[in-house]
Amino acid sequence: MEIKTVRGMKDILPGEVARWERVEQSARSTLRAYGFEEIRTPVLEATGLFERAIGQATDIVSKEMYTFNERGGASVSLRPEATASVCRAYVEHHMNSEGALAKLYLIGPMFRTERPQAGRQRQFHQISAEAIGCAHPLADVEMITLLSDLLIGAGADRFTLLLNSVGCGHETCRARFVTLFTQYLKAHLPSLCPECRGRYPKRVWRILDCKKEGCRKVTRGGPSLAEHIRTAACDCGRHFETVQKGLKASGVAFQIEPCLVRGLDYYTKTAFEVVAQGLGAQDAVAAGGRYDGLVELLGGPQVGGVGMAIGLERLMLALEAGGKNAAEEAKGGVYVALLGESGVESALHFVRKLREGGVPCHMAFETSRSLKSQLREADRLKLRSVVMLGEREMERQVVTVKDLVAREQKELPIRELVAYLTRAVQ
User: Fold this and answer.
1) Which of 157, 219, 324, 407 is the most buried (most CB within 10 A)?
2) Where are the domains of the chain?
3) In degrees, to the nearest 5, what angle opens at C-alpha 208 toward C-alphas 278 and 165?
């Protein structure tokens, strides 16, 4: 019986990996330009980390985590997102010891037991960034600007940045709004979808984020979150105004989305989401926000934080929808074609030297293969050059180099081959 991948898991094959690598390399370059350093955390964490950080009543913790008991009885979970793990590492390793802003990024797999569909797998990958140790709104501006630059650097140009403030726990801010919103919804429960009715009254916050038109109509007629934030006795209103002014000054376009809230309990103040055209219902390719109380909740100091995450699977779909993945670039590599037994030893020597010089090399092993067959293989591998070695070439101490991109070929003295090809692929 053939064994296949587990439902919701997907192999990423070599051709796809090459595209992913280009996006990841572009992201690393941009993140480093912004002063971020890479961190790598375990995919397996104590379940209590996510229960405390994300919230036990959230869909992620209550329905979507891969959770099991270790042999000793401890409950552990595969990470469903990166922020909680990075903040745990920040606290555990005392990264605030010098009082500096910690700017960290992570690229890797996350896990949720969601219903698989296009752009939504049970193992998925994210590029995430966290700036921990600053509560200033300009840190939000930099994070959102970074996100915009990451998407543009990847080749995405058809996206919309949605922005909102979710306020804070002050009694005149979000807490007051939730109380009034809960009272308002009581009279409108029959108009809500079954899922949102199930969220009442403990998770009314998530009803704001429902995309079903009936629920959106109900929420639009209720109390205004934006008005509560604007008139609250805390600084949430001023914070949000500063974020908007900073984004305008940075040239980052955005739209205010009053119903945008995040599905994690730790978010405060700024929340944002990026949607891409052409992806249907699963159109969110990135999201993030501020989480000023999270580090303290995990046993650390009282510091602010802001972060974001890009879903790589959805970003790749968005690039494909925009025609950015259609054409494969030729790789800057070399194929060494053998025209008989006499060129084998020289080929082994050249391949070793080229690889030492950083030139990717493929070599034919079977000397009986025709040149036409070897050229087809080089073309399939999308290599740039083919070096042809045979008995006549060895006698004359020359090699023939065929450029598969320019569709031309030339003869070179053997002694010049390594230097020539090293220059050609740079």
Assistant:
1) 219
2) 14-168+234-321, 331-424
3) 90
